[in-house]
Design a protein that fits this description.
The structure holds 3 protein chains of 3 kinds. Helices cover 34% and strands 24% of the residues of chain B. By secondary structure, chain B is an alpha/beta fold. In chain B, the strands form 2 sheets. A 6-stranded mixed sheet of chain B has the order 6-7-8-3-9-10, with helices on both faces. In chain B, strand 7, helix 6 and strand 8 form a beta-alpha-beta unit. The longest helix of chain B is centred in the middle third of the chain and has 14 residues, at 150-163. Chain B is globular, with a radius of gyration of 18 Å. Chain C contains 13 helices and 2 strands, in the order H-H-H-H-E-E-H-H-H-H-H-H-H-H-H. In chain C, 49% of the residues are buried. The chains are: A mainly alpha, B alpha/beta, C mainly alpha. Chains A and C meet through helix 6, helix 12 and helix 14 of A and helix 4, helix 11 and helix 13 of C.
């Protein structure tokens, strides 16, 4: 089976005579997937805000999948970049510049800058060192935001985030229609970018680094440089996701930072299946839907079942939903071949 | 003429244990040399020192005129030194074709490109398919390397090394574990390398060594025991003594 | 000024000893079983809550301590035999996710049973208040804490250096495969060591109620400190963890005293700096 980069359900069929290389032609299943939100816009007008949250979490999850699933960097502090992006966009708007797209750009730039600096600490160590450093960085930013009450609003959060019209035309309305289309558009654009990166030689080299770190220098690859680039890109995208959250909810809570946000994101990516991009989106959708339904009932139960889910996934379903689906398809295909 | 690869007084110590002691060797351009010695003689350590995987304790390594003793591995690779591994060291979830294409892209310096797709790199893909065909791996091009049988994984190892178009190729037991039929393929490809490529291979299979090498270097206890043509080595009583108990094809 | 400094030093040492007590188990687990156990804080928390539950039933504080140690050790053995050992060879990410899952479950359970507020601890009268020594005010409880930790450490050192079981632990940490080849039951060593480590963590959690507080967020709040002590000290190294824990304790107390506005920021910054400077830990063991 060829390990192609961004397939939703990788072909369980036997290898084709001329083996394929990673490409980015859009498969029919993918196109169908991306058309799904549009009927939802019309069919579920009361759930547009939730849908925007799903898109934002999806983007955030994809940014982690790039770092974790493709580059193999275990990060417990990815929320730091989400938070940097959120506060950048939020503070810009609060202090008078509410233009959405430039706010996104500024957030991406800020998060990328922080990610770039952090990456040098992260690419050096082994797994454990990376865990520690990313955990520490995540907590560092949380504490900083907590203490800098005058700037960030601390635990109370940053409100009064007033956004201007998008492209001078679309106002952020209370039902969330603009937010829905805005976050969807940004998600699609970023996803297309990541999809291309993952199918490129750079993406292939990332997977190779993740798989066999020792072999890559033997091929002449500048491993650290590649990891820095991947980490920075992931950080930038997380920043964009954070900015989207700030702009669409017009508020920045301190929970955009901190361990809980990072841990939940790890769960999202692993739930859907890491290293597949679509797994991150699927995980985000399911997680957000489950959370909105269940945690409203009882937040303590939610946390308990979330922990249990995690334990079960690790012990029994390591590839996540897409990994499981792939295995099911493979079994089905081999059963078909056997019955011929 | 300047040797392609040269060492002077190369020494490697792990604490009190000296793996390589004071090794001087010189590989002329286009050499087909073999490195032999009983297990534990320090052969793989020597290759690790030459490629930059391990730092030296003392001595110098030169690629051509350039002193490379302290250069990291990936920079020595850029200067044309490639190795294969005694223990297969592949990319488990990449397919055979993807692995070789990646190696070629790294050589060409385009592996950092993010705006095009791998599939669009037709030149590299074609070269990869040709290389795989030469090693009779074309049928497995789409298979993930972790799913291959051991013998084929070794062939992919060799393919990766060859894909870097090395000027100096260090092969660590290239034929180990490969069934006889396929090892003929390996040898044919290596023998078919251009005359300006320098090859040093470690082998225990004396058949291969005597058939293939123009000169043999013998290592024992971390030191250079002797060096000579196959005929000289076969006749050397010290070598026979060192190999006493091992199957020496004399 | 000097009084303040000594006071801070003393507080820092007390705090650091507590961290050491808890982190020690984590250090050995990471060094021996190469398992990143982020649920270690949850075990400590469990010890604390068990102590509270016992005290509510009228058990005196000092009596709860050995009970908590044994109970948490037992819980550790059960967890290790049923769940942890399946993941010894798993990638670190899997271990991280698994232990985070356990931690979430523990936090939820604690909130459900005890509620989200801080738990009080009922110290015996002779441990309350202070000793006045050489013009300094030394908290009695803190003195007790340090003394207890020293006692435990001496015992541990004796166990590790002078007993056969200790030799087996050291051998297994150095090279599990070779130890197994020598007939050492590495499985048993792992289970026993894990039990010991979690037992100590539970004990530390109970002892720490007065110093660190106890609420459901304990498991995660102090996890960073434990991990830091282990990573900087070097996994598997008792001396290293002790040194790191003490440095950490003193720096944190000093930081919060002199620069209260920065809060825990100093510790995290220190963490990053130390990790970069000592990628293999103070004593050079694999981290």
């Amino acid at each position: 089976m060829s390990a192609e980069a961004a397939e939703p359900l990788a072909g369980a069929a036997a290898a084709e005579p001329a083996a394929a290389l990673p490409h980015d032609r859009w498969r029919p299943l993918e196109v169908a997937f991306w058309l799904l939100p549009l009927p939802c816009y019309f069919l579920f007008p009361g759930y547009l805000v939730l849908a925007s949250q799903i898109f934002i979490t999806g983007l955030f999850a994809v940014s982690l999948d790039l770092i974790l699933g493709y580059a193999g960097i275990v990060s417990l502090g990815h929320s730091a970049f989400f938070g940097v992006g959120a506060y950048t966009a939020g503070l810009l708007a609060r202090h008078g510049w509410g233009e959405p797209l430039s706010g996104l750009a500024a957030a991406a730039a800020a998060a990328a800058a922080v990610g770039f600096l952090v990456s040098f600490l992260v690419v050096r160590g082994g797994d454990l060192a990376r865990l520690m450093v990313t955990l520490g960085i995540g907590q560092l930013f949380f504490e900083a935001a907590n203490k800098a009450y005058d700037v960030t609003g601390g635990v109370d959060g940053l409100n009064d985030v007033r956004m201007w019209r998008i492209l001078g035309l679309f106002d952020f309305d209370l039902q969330g229609r603009t937010a829905f289309l805005y976050s969807l558009a940004v998600l699609v654009a970023c996803f297309a970018l990541v999809r291309r990166v993952v199918a490129s030689p750079f993406g292939l080299s990332l997977r190779a680094i993740r798989d066999g770190g020792k072999r890559m220098p033997a091929l002449g690859a500048p491993v650290r440089r590649r990891l820095v680039a991947a980490f920075t890109l992931g950080a930038a995208m997380a920043g964009v996701a954070g900015a989207l959250l700030a702009q669409t909810t017009q508020f920045v809570g301190i929970d955009v930072l901190g361990f809980n946000r990072s841990a939940e994101l790890l769960i999202v990516v692993v739930l859907g299946g890491a290293g597949r991009l679509y797994g991150a989106l699927l995980g985000a959708a399911i997680f957000m839907l489950a959370q909105s339904y269940l945690s409203g009932i009882n937040p303590v139960y939610w946390q308990f079942w979330l922990g249990l889910l995690l334990v079960v996934i690790v012990l029994f379903a390591r590839g996540g939903l897409l990994g499981g689906a792939r295995r099911v398809l493979a079994l089905w295909a081999s059963a078909r071949r056997a019955s011929r | 003429m300047t040797p392609a690869l040269r060492t002077r007084g190369l020494t490697k110590a792990f604490g009190a244990f000296v793996a390589n002691a004071d090794i001087d060797l010189a590989l002329p351009v286009g050499a087909r040399y073999a490195l032999i010695g009983p297990n534990g003689a320090g052969k793989t350590t020597l290759v690790n020192l030459l490629t930059g995987v391990l730092p030296v304790t003392a001595g110098e390594v030169y690629i051509g005129e350039e002193r490379v003793t302290h250069l990291p591995q990936h920079q020595r690779v850029r200067r044309g030194v490639t190795r294969t591994y005694q223990i297969t060291n592949l990319f488990p979830t990449l397919t055979v074709l993807e692995s070789v294409v990646l190696a070629i892209c790294e050589r060409e310096g385009v592996a950092g490109a993010w705006r095009c797709t791998v599939a669009s790199r037709t030149g590299e893909a074609r070269e990869a398919r040709e290389l795989l065909a030469a090693l009779h791996l074309a049928g497995d091009a789409g298979v993930e390397t972790r799913l291959l049988p051991y013998g084929k994984q070794r062939l992919v190892e060799i393919a990766l090394a060859l894909a870097t178009r090395p000027r100096i190729l260090l092969l660590d037991e290239p034929a180990a574990g490969i069934p006889a039929a396929e090892s003929a393929d390996v040898l044919r490809v290596i023998a078919g390398l251009p005359p300006d490529v320098t090859v040093l291979f470690i082998e225990h299979d004396m058949d291969l060594v005597f058939r293939f090498a123009e000169r043999i270097i013998v290592l024992h206890g971390g030191r250079l025991l002797t060096e000579g043509t196959p005929a000289e080595i076969a006749a050397d009583p010290r070598v026979r003594e060192v190999y006493l108990g091992e199957a020496a094809h004399v | 000024m000097l009084r303040n400094l000594t006071g801070i030093l003393f507080d820092g040492i007390a705090y650091g000893s507590l961290l050491f007590l808890i982190s020690n188990g984590l250090s050995v687990t990471m060094g021996l079983m190469n398992f990143v156990n982020l649920a270690h804080g949850a075990f400590a928390m469990a010890g604390g809550y068990l102590c509270v539950a016992l005290m509510r039933r009228g058990v005196p504080f000092l009596v709860t301590l050995p009970l908590v140690f044994l109970a948490t050790a037992l819980a550790g053995v059960v967890a290790e035999r049923t769940l942890y050992r399946r993941l010894y060879r798993a990638p670190h990410l899997d271990q991280v996710l698994f232990s985070i899952g356990l931690t979430f479950m523990a936090i939820a359970a604690a909130t459900f049973v005890f509620g989200p507020t801080q738990q009080p601890v009922d110290l015996p009268p002779f441990l309350r208040g202070q000793f006045h020594v050489l013009g300094l005010d030394l908290g009695r409880y803190r003195l007790f804490l340090v003394a207890l930790v020293v006692l435990v450490t001496v015992d541990l050192e004796f166990l590790i250096r002078r007993t056969r079981f200790g030799a087996q632990i050291r051998a297994s940490v150095d090279n599990a495969a070779a130890s197994a080849g020598l007939g050492i039951d590495v499985d048993l060593v792992c289970a026993a060591t894990f039990a010991l480590g979690t037992g100590l963590a539970g004990l530390g959690g109970a002892l720490g109620i007065d110093l660190l507080g106890l609420d459901p967020t304990f498991a995660l709040k102090y996890l960073v400190y434990f991990l830091l002590a282990v990573a900087v000290g070097g996994a598997g190294s008792v001396k290293g963890t002790a040194a790191a824990a003490l440095v950490l304790g003193v720096c944190d107390v000093a930081g919060k005293y002199y620069v209260p506005a920065a809060g825990a920021f100093i510790v995290y910054a220190l963490m990053v700096v130390l990790l970069v400077a000592f990628p293999l830990g103070f004593y050079g063991r694999r981290a």
